[in-house]
Amino acid sequence: MGRAEVGTPKYIANKMKAKGLQRLRWYCQVCEKQCRDENGFRCHTQSESHVRQMLIIGENPQKKIAEYSEQFKRDFLSLLKSSHGEKKINFNKFYQEYISDRNHIHMNATKWVSLTEFVKYLGDQSICSVEVDPGKEGGFTIAYIDHSLEAIKRRELAQKRERGDKDDSEREQKQLERQMKKAKMEGEELKKLQKKESENDENKSESDDSKSTRELKRDGTQPIKLAVSFSKRPTATVATRPKPLKL
To answer: Beta strands 89-90 and 140-144: pairing type?
Structure first.
């Protein structure tokens, strides 16, 4: 069956299909050619151009795999830095963003067998911050770590500001604790003073009660009786003139 002529509906449909993502197993990284089905991929692998490229790579396959791995990592990190910066994102979600470009380097041409192996490599090499994603998406979250001089200075400034805020918070906490301790001591002293005043009032009340028991108490139903005793009035002695002496 021949190819569809240019401008026909079938030709346009084939072009639209070619723009989208196709099966990874039907993509030839060596020739950078995407096939739409298994039959097309088998025909491509038997073509002269593909065989020639495979013979060239066969002379030193490890070198080509290392080149693909380095380019894959470079493109992956470049997109991560430009699109998300140092913010966290789910690894699988971001990988879908990366492979949306149909001309990207595919992982099956690199030294990493799976995505899990690649994300662990990024974490072990301190290229990205890798954590287990507790959300619904699962997997891992990654965040790009910028090792440039400006980024290092920016992180140091942020850490210094954070330490300053922490020191201010600790000073405020200590000052609050001192105020609470002082208020507690003043409260205890006030309680002691109130207790002392209360004891003094009680002692004064007891002394007043003892005085009141010694005062005269009158029963309102009985008349008041007074016992009065009269003693003899002393008699006055009249002084007599002395008689004149007779000569």
So the answer is: antiparallel
Q: What is the mean pLDDT of each run of 10 residues along the chain (247 residues)?
A: 63 58 73 82 88 86 90 92 90 88 82 90 91 80 85 77 78 84 83 80 68 55 60 54 57
**Within 13 Å and on the Cβ side, how many CA atoms surround 24?**
10
Q: Would the pTM count as exceeding 0.70? A: no
Measured CA to CA in angstroms, residue 196 lies from 55, 84, 183, 189, 238 at distances of 106, 71, 20, 11, 71
What is the SS3 string spanning 159-194? HHHHHHHHHHHHHHHHHHHHHHHHHHHHHHHHHHHH
Rounded-to-integer distance, Cα 157 and Cα 165, Å: 12
The token duo for 138 is 């699962």
Measured from the Cβ of residue 34, the count of other Cβ atoms closer than 10 Å reads 21
Q: Which residue shows structure tokens 């430009």?
A: 82
Chain centre distance of CA 109? 41
